[in-house]
Amino acid sequence: MRHIQKDIDNQIARTRLESVSYMTDTNHSINVTKGKYYQSKKYGHKIIRDELKDIYHNKCAFCESKIKPVATPNVEHFRPKSEISRVNENGYYWLGYEWSNLLLACPSCNGAKSTKFPLYGDNHITTHPVDVHGNIDYSRFPENQGYLAKERPLLINPEYWHPEKLMYIDYFGRLIPIKNNVFATTTIREIELNRDDLVAKRQKKIDKIIVRLEEQIFARYGDNPLNDLQYQYQLNIIFKDIVGRLDKKAEYTLLGKCMVERFDELILEDIEPEFREEIMNYFIDFLNNL
What we know:
Low-confidence stretches: none
Structural class: mainly alpha
C-alpha cells in the first residue's frame, strides 16, 4: 500500500455521482431500502472508474497490483454501503455514491475486504447525518468534512493515511506491520495482503534484483572481468531500476521504498559476504548522486 492524493472535490466524478438520477437512488436508499437500491453500473460507471484509474494509476488501492486489462477494476466502497460484517445489515447506506468513499480495487482485494469494516472501539455510525431541521445533510457526506471523525477505522484508507509509515516488506515478500501497528496488522489480515500469490510476486521482484547483481559479480570477477568503470556502470543500471520502482506509476512502490531503505536486508542478504560492502558502497554513491 502507499498514500494516494485524491481530489475530494473532483468535479468530473461529483457531477456524475450527484446528478438527479444518482440522487434519486440515494434518497430511496436513505428513506426506503437502507442501502439496497444502489446500482453497480452507476457507481462503477466508466467515468467514475476512469477517474479512479487515473488517480491510482490503474493499481489496486490495497495490494498495489496493476489491474490487468482482462480484469475489470472494481469500484470499492471503503465504508460498506449495504451491510457491515458482524455489525448490521444496513451499512453506510447513505454513502453508496459518495466520491470520498470510493476506491479502486482488484477483484481479489475487493472480494477479501467485502463488507468488513472493523473499528477501534466498535462505535459504528449507523444513521445518516441530518441538519437542524431533521433533513438529510448532504454537506456532511464527504469524509473530509469531519462527520465521520468519531470513527477510527482499523482498516487503512490510503487516501487519508500513509501506509508506508505503518508497514514494510521483508526478505520473503511479506507485508510486516511496523512495531505491531494495529491498523497495519488488521488491514493486512482482513484484506489478505499476504496471500500466496501476492507474496510470490513481491518475492520474485526481489529475487530478480539479486540474480542481476550476482550476474554482474560473476562478470566482474570471471574469466573476462569487467573493469571498475564497467562494473559500476552495470550496477548503476540495476540501482536505477530499483529507484524507478519508487515512481507512483510503478507496481508495488512500497517494495521499491523497502529495497532502497532496507537494501542490506532485502538484497544483500543473498549476496556472498565478501562482495556486500563493495556493492553497498556503490549503491550509496549512486543514491548520493541522484
